[in-house]
Amino acid sequence: xxxxxxxxxxxxxxxxxxxxxxxxxxxxxxxxxxxxxxxxxxxxxxxxxxxxxxxxxxxxxxxxxxxxxxxxxxxxxxxxxxxxxxxxxxxxxxxxxxxxxxxxxxxxxxxxxxxxxxxxxxxxxxxxxxxxxxxxxxxxxxxxxxxxxxxxxxxxxxxxxxxxxxxxxxxxxxxxxxxxxxxxxxxxxxxxxxxxxxxxxxxxxxxxxxxxxxxxxxxxxxxxxxxxxxxxxxxxxxxxxx
Length: 242
Known about the structure:
By secondary structure, the chain is mainly alpha-helical. Helix 2 packs across helix 9 (about 135-165) and helix 6 (about 90-100) packs parallel to helix 8 (about 120-130). Helices cover about 80% and strands about 0% of the residues. It is globular, with a radius of gyration of 20 Å.
Protein backbone atom coordinates (compact mmCIF):
# COMPACT_ATOMS: atom_id res chain seq x y z
CA UNK A 1 0.00 0.00 0.00
CA UNK A 2 2.73 2.62 0.75
CA UNK A 3 4.25 2.03 -2.66
CA UNK A 4 0.86 2.64 -4.30
CA UNK A 5 0.49 5.86 -2.34
CA UNK A 6 3.91 7.02 -3.45
CA UNK A 7 3.02 6.18 -7.04
CA UNK A 8 -0.18 8.20 -6.71
CA UNK A 9 1.71 11.15 -5.28
CA UNK A 10 4.26 10.94 -8.06
CA UNK A 11 1.41 10.99 -10.60
CA UNK A 12 -0.01 14.10 -8.94
CA UNK A 13 3.39 15.79 -9.04
CA UNK A 14 3.79 15.00 -12.73
CA UNK A 15 0.29 16.22 -13.53
CA UNK A 16 1.00 19.52 -11.80
CA UNK A 17 4.36 19.80 -13.56
CA UNK A 18 2.78 19.27 -16.99
CA UNK A 19 0.10 21.86 -16.31
CA UNK A 20 2.59 24.43 -15.03
CA UNK A 21 5.03 23.91 -17.87
CA UNK A 22 2.33 24.20 -20.56
CA UNK A 23 0.96 27.37 -18.99
CA UNK A 24 4.38 29.03 -18.73
CA UNK A 25 5.93 27.91 -22.02
CA UNK A 26 4.52 30.68 -24.28
CA UNK A 27 5.58 33.39 -21.85
CA UNK A 28 9.03 31.92 -21.33
CA UNK A 29 10.06 32.71 -24.91
CA UNK A 30 10.52 36.32 -23.86
CA UNK A 31 13.30 35.28 -21.49
CA UNK A 32 15.61 34.47 -24.41
CA UNK A 33 16.23 38.01 -25.76
CA UNK A 34 16.02 39.46 -22.25
CA UNK A 35 18.70 37.05 -20.99
CA UNK A 36 20.92 37.67 -24.01
CA UNK A 37 20.72 41.44 -23.54
CA UNK A 38 21.60 41.00 -19.87
CA UNK A 39 24.60 38.86 -20.78
CA UNK A 40 25.85 41.41 -23.29
CA UNK A 41 25.26 44.24 -20.81
CA UNK A 42 27.27 42.51 -18.07
CA UNK A 43 30.30 42.11 -20.32
CA UNK A 44 29.83 45.60 -21.74
CA UNK A 45 29.92 47.01 -18.20
CA UNK A 46 33.36 45.56 -17.58
CA UNK A 47 32.70 42.14 -16.05
CA UNK A 48 34.79 39.21 -17.21
CA UNK A 49 32.89 36.25 -18.69
CA UNK A 50 33.50 34.24 -15.49
CA UNK A 51 32.20 37.10 -13.33
CA UNK A 52 29.19 37.54 -15.60
CA UNK A 53 28.31 33.84 -15.42
CA UNK A 54 28.68 33.94 -11.64
CA UNK A 55 26.40 36.95 -11.39
CA UNK A 56 23.85 35.29 -13.64
CA UNK A 57 23.73 32.22 -11.39
CA UNK A 58 23.96 33.89 -7.98
CA UNK A 59 21.69 36.88 -8.52
CA UNK A 60 19.23 35.30 -11.01
CA UNK A 61 17.23 38.50 -11.41
CA UNK A 62 17.37 40.52 -14.60
CA UNK A 63 16.15 43.68 -12.88
CA UNK A 64 18.72 43.47 -10.10
CA UNK A 65 21.52 42.52 -12.47
CA UNK A 66 20.87 45.38 -14.87
CA UNK A 67 20.08 47.84 -12.10
CA UNK A 68 23.37 47.27 -10.30
CA UNK A 69 25.62 47.22 -13.36
CA UNK A 70 26.04 51.03 -13.43
CA UNK A 71 27.09 50.91 -9.78
CA UNK A 72 29.56 48.10 -10.43
CA UNK A 73 31.02 50.00 -13.39
CA UNK A 74 31.38 53.09 -11.18
CA UNK A 75 33.18 51.06 -8.47
CA UNK A 76 30.48 51.87 -5.91
CA UNK A 77 30.84 50.29 -2.45
CA UNK A 78 29.53 46.76 -2.03
CA UNK A 79 26.89 47.73 0.53
CA UNK A 80 25.35 50.20 -1.92
CA UNK A 81 25.24 47.59 -4.69
CA UNK A 82 23.59 45.06 -2.37
CA UNK A 83 21.12 47.64 -1.04
CA UNK A 84 20.13 48.61 -4.58
CA UNK A 85 19.62 44.99 -5.60
CA UNK A 86 17.46 44.35 -2.54
CA UNK A 87 15.37 47.46 -3.19
CA UNK A 88 14.84 46.45 -6.81
CA UNK A 89 13.61 43.03 -5.67
CA UNK A 90 11.24 44.16 -2.91
CA UNK A 91 8.29 42.83 -4.90
CA UNK A 92 9.48 39.29 -4.21
CA UNK A 93 8.66 39.75 -0.53
CA UNK A 94 5.02 40.04 -1.58
CA UNK A 95 5.34 37.20 -4.07
CA UNK A 96 6.90 34.93 -1.47
CA UNK A 97 4.12 35.65 1.01
CA UNK A 98 1.60 34.75 -1.68
CA UNK A 99 2.98 31.25 -2.28
CA UNK A 100 4.54 30.40 1.10
CA UNK A 101 1.48 28.51 2.34
CA UNK A 102 1.77 26.02 -0.51
CA UNK A 103 5.19 24.81 0.63
CA UNK A 104 5.08 25.07 4.43
CA UNK A 105 5.25 21.27 4.69
CA UNK A 106 8.74 21.26 3.14
CA UNK A 107 12.02 21.59 5.03
CA UNK A 108 13.91 24.86 5.15
CA UNK A 109 16.53 23.98 2.47
CA UNK A 110 13.76 23.08 0.00
CA UNK A 111 11.88 26.30 0.75
CA UNK A 112 15.10 28.24 0.27
CA UNK A 113 15.53 26.66 -3.17
CA UNK A 114 11.94 27.47 -4.08
CA UNK A 115 12.53 31.09 -3.09
CA UNK A 116 15.68 31.25 -5.19
CA UNK A 117 13.78 30.04 -8.27
CA UNK A 118 10.92 32.53 -7.88
CA UNK A 119 10.51 34.89 -10.85
CA UNK A 120 7.69 37.21 -11.92
CA UNK A 121 6.32 35.06 -14.74
CA UNK A 122 6.23 31.85 -12.72
CA UNK A 123 4.42 33.60 -9.88
CA UNK A 124 1.84 35.08 -12.25
CA UNK A 125 1.19 31.71 -13.90
CA UNK A 126 1.19 29.49 -10.80
CA UNK A 127 -0.37 31.41 -7.93
CA UNK A 128 -4.05 31.01 -8.85
CA UNK A 129 -3.95 27.32 -9.91
CA UNK A 130 -2.04 26.45 -6.73
CA UNK A 131 -4.72 28.13 -4.63
CA UNK A 132 -7.41 26.07 -6.37
CA UNK A 133 -5.65 22.71 -5.98
CA UNK A 134 -5.27 21.31 -2.46
CA UNK A 135 -2.80 18.51 -3.29
CA UNK A 136 0.67 19.60 -2.07
CA UNK A 137 2.46 17.37 -4.58
CA UNK A 138 0.49 18.81 -7.49
CA UNK A 139 1.32 22.31 -6.23
CA UNK A 140 5.01 21.50 -5.98
CA UNK A 141 5.12 20.08 -9.50
CA UNK A 142 3.12 22.99 -10.87
CA UNK A 143 5.69 25.40 -9.46
CA UNK A 144 8.95 23.54 -9.99
CA UNK A 145 8.51 22.65 -13.66
CA UNK A 146 8.16 26.23 -14.96
CA UNK A 147 10.58 27.60 -12.36
CA UNK A 148 13.37 25.20 -13.33
CA UNK A 149 12.64 25.81 -17.01
CA UNK A 150 12.87 29.58 -16.47
CA UNK A 151 16.19 29.15 -14.62
CA UNK A 152 17.69 26.96 -17.35
CA UNK A 153 16.48 29.24 -20.13
CA UNK A 154 17.84 32.32 -18.36
CA UNK A 155 21.24 30.75 -17.82
CA UNK A 156 21.54 29.54 -21.42
CA UNK A 157 20.40 32.82 -22.98
CA UNK A 158 22.60 34.81 -20.61
CA UNK A 159 25.57 32.60 -21.44
CA UNK A 160 24.91 33.16 -25.15
CA UNK A 161 24.99 36.91 -24.63
CA UNK A 162 28.17 36.66 -22.57
CA UNK A 163 30.02 34.53 -25.10
CA UNK A 164 29.04 36.62 -28.12
CA UNK A 165 29.33 40.05 -26.48
CA UNK A 166 32.77 40.60 -28.00
CA UNK A 167 31.36 39.91 -31.46
CA UNK A 168 29.09 42.96 -31.24
CA UNK A 169 30.46 46.05 -33.04
CA UNK A 170 32.20 48.53 -30.75
CA UNK A 171 30.01 51.32 -32.15
CA UNK A 172 27.00 49.76 -30.39
CA UNK A 173 28.06 51.33 -27.05
CA UNK A 174 27.46 48.24 -24.94
CA UNK A 175 27.74 50.23 -21.71
CA UNK A 176 24.24 51.57 -22.44
CA UNK A 177 22.69 48.15 -22.95
CA UNK A 178 21.67 47.90 -19.29
CA UNK A 179 19.84 51.21 -19.43
CA UNK A 180 18.07 50.32 -22.66
CA UNK A 181 17.01 46.92 -21.31
CA UNK A 182 15.66 48.50 -18.12
CA UNK A 183 13.61 50.94 -20.20
CA UNK A 184 12.13 48.05 -22.17
CA UNK A 185 11.13 46.44 -18.86
CA UNK A 186 9.75 49.67 -17.40
CA UNK A 187 7.51 50.86 -20.23
CA UNK A 188 4.91 48.03 -20.08
CA UNK A 189 4.79 48.35 -16.29
CA UNK A 190 3.98 52.08 -16.37
CA UNK A 191 0.40 51.59 -17.56
CA UNK A 192 -1.19 52.15 -14.14
CA UNK A 193 -1.20 55.44 -12.26
CA UNK A 194 0.86 54.23 -9.24
CA UNK A 195 3.53 52.75 -11.50
CA UNK A 196 3.63 55.87 -13.66
CA UNK A 197 3.93 58.12 -10.59
CA UNK A 198 6.69 55.91 -9.20
CA UNK A 199 8.62 55.94 -12.49
CA UNK A 200 8.33 59.71 -12.99
CA UNK A 201 9.20 60.53 -9.38
CA UNK A 202 12.13 58.14 -9.22
CA UNK A 203 13.50 59.33 -12.55
CA UNK A 204 13.16 63.01 -11.65
CA UNK A 205 14.85 62.60 -8.27
CA UNK A 206 17.67 60.48 -9.74
CA UNK A 207 18.33 63.09 -12.44
CA UNK A 208 18.18 65.99 -9.99
CA UNK A 209 20.65 64.28 -7.64
CA UNK A 210 22.89 62.75 -10.30
CA UNK A 211 25.85 64.79 -9.02
CA UNK A 212 25.96 63.02 -5.68
CA UNK A 213 28.99 60.78 -5.09
CA UNK A 214 28.85 56.97 -5.29
CA UNK A 215 25.62 57.11 -7.30
CA UNK A 216 23.61 58.02 -4.19
CA UNK A 217 21.28 59.91 -6.50
CA UNK A 218 20.23 56.62 -8.10
CA UNK A 219 19.47 54.99 -4.77
CA UNK A 220 17.63 58.08 -3.53
CA UNK A 221 15.56 58.16 -6.69
CA UNK A 222 14.75 54.48 -6.26
CA UNK A 223 13.51 55.00 -2.70
CA UNK A 224 11.57 58.13 -3.71
CA UNK A 225 9.90 56.24 -6.57
CA UNK A 226 8.84 53.38 -4.29
CA UNK A 227 7.38 55.77 -1.70
CA UNK A 228 5.59 57.79 -4.39
CA UNK A 229 4.12 54.64 -5.90
CA UNK A 230 2.78 53.48 -2.53
CA UNK A 231 1.34 56.94 -1.87
CA UNK A 232 -0.37 57.05 -5.26
CA UNK A 233 -1.85 53.58 -4.74
CA UNK A 234 -3.26 54.58 -1.33
CA UNK A 235 -4.60 57.89 -2.61
CA UNK A 236 -6.31 56.48 -5.69
CA UNK A 237 -9.07 54.41 -3.94
CA UNK A 238 -9.83 57.32 -1.62
CA UNK A 239 -10.27 59.64 -4.59
CA UNK A 240 -12.60 57.17 -6.29
CA UNK A 241 -14.72 56.70 -3.17
CA UNK A 242 -14.98 60.46 -2.62
